[in-house]
Amino acid sequence: MKNTVGNSTCKPTNMPVHLTGIFMTLSVSGMLTSALGNSLIFLAVYKARSLRTPANYLLMSLSFASLLFIPVLASYAVSLTKTKCDALIPTLCQWTSLVDFALFCVVMAHLAVISLDRLLAIKSMRYQDLVTKNRTKALIIFIWIIGTLEAVFPNILQVLIDSRRGTTLLELFRGCIQNNRIPGKKTVAMVVPHFLFLMSLAVFVPSGIMLVTHAWIFKISTEQNRRIRAVQDAMGLRRLSEIRAAKTVAIIVFSALACFTPLLVVKFIITFEPPLGKRLDPSIFNVKYILFPSLKILTLLAICVNPLIYALKSRPFKEVFKRIFQNVRISFSKGNDFEPKTRKLGDACTPN
After folding, report:
1. Distance between the two ends of the chain, CA-based, in angstroms?
2. Nearest to residue 320, comparing CAs of 40, 38, 32, 64?
3. Tens digits of per-residue pLDDT, 190-219?
4. DSSP notation for 139-185
5. Tally of CB atoms within 10 A around 7
6. Does the predicted model carry a pTM greater than 0.90?
7. Helix pair angle (192-199, 163-173), 10° resolution
8. How far apart are alpha carbons 226 and 205 in whole angstroms?
9. Which residue, 148, 151, 162, 177, is most buried by CB atoms nearer than 10 A?
10. pLDDT tens for residues 48-84?
11. Where are the alpha helices (DSSP H) in the chain?
């Protein structure tokens, strides 16, 4: 059956119902997990003054970015119920993929800055003087501005280069998980340099910073761990605490990279091995409609739960979470009395 969108004739692609059901389930699970987990992080920082540190401000900003992925997942879920012939799909995919790419750039920048923050905390004795709350807040604003500019850069390039290459470049970065476009081989070849430049800004540079930073941290921790434990002075104990915090950061950084990598590999396969004609062979069809949507949703799920993983690995956050759940349990055990007993959570917490 053919539908007409504008002046063109559209042939919808029929997707297996079970795949749509799986993608919808994963999307809804991601939205619920992100809403619950990241809200809990904000509640913990609100309740405990000792958690209001520059490092945790970066974590809260990362949590806020994860919360903003909820409307992205919701839009993708809506697109799963539509075909590319639906009149809503072009606009929905355009704005959703723009927000998706912007948040991805913001998350990658956050992970790079958090890694540098942990390295500075280990190496510099003047960390608390250099990294203040006001400077961290200004840095967070700068990260969000840079991420937004990176997201709209393809649109800027579209204006600077000719319309045909600009449209092809946008097709490589825009699209819903089941309505993404794969340009032909001849058209993709014209925009490969621009594509690699944008991927370098959004992916390769932040990833390189993370890898080098944590390799440096690992070297420092290996050299100084034994000596710090032997000395047991106040400065040594502080550095040992910072090394432990850096190891926790390494978990979320490398788990994020592990989830991003398969999706990026598929993206590069689509870019450098596109179909020769308009028709998709079975392998490209599976990549476009099965592998790419699966990896995309799993990547978004990883982004949504990453801040929660860090919080659950952090002793101060676990202390606050425990007290929050204790207060909630006490309030419900009183029946109709919903007034929770408040405690000074900030005094009971220790720094990272």
Report:
1. 60
2. 40
3. 777 888 888 888 888 988 898 888 888 877
4. HHHHHHHHHHHHHHHHHHHHHHS-HHHHHHHHHHH---TTS-----H
5. 5
6. no
7. 40
8. 33
9. 177
10. 888 888 988 998 999 999 899 888 888 888 887 777 6
11. 17-47, 54-80, 89-123, 127-130, 133-160, 163-173, 185-189, 192-199, 205-231, 234-272, 282-286, 292-313, 315-333
For residue 277, give the DSSP letter.
S
C-alpha 108/C-alpha 210 separation (Å) is 9
Q: Looking up tokens 């080098």, which residue turns up? A: 212
Best CA proximity match to 127, nearest among 245, 232, 264, 298: 245
* Half-sphere exposure of residue 38: CA atoms within 13 angstroms, side-chain side: 26
Return the residue matching tokens 């209001």: 52
Q: Which phi and psi angles does 149 have, rounded to 5°?
A: -65, -40
DSSP conformation class of 342: P
How far is the C-alpha of 243 from the C-alpha of 224, rounded, in Å? 10
- Tokens 């600077």, residue located: 160
In this structure, are residues 33 and 110 in contact, taking their beta carbons and an 8 Å threshold?
no
Contact 118, 127 (CB under 8 A): no
Instruction: Answer for the pair 270, 287: CB distance below 8 angstroms, yes or no.
Output: yes
Nearest-angstrom CA–CA distance, 289 and 293: 6
Map tokens 């799920």 to a residue: 301
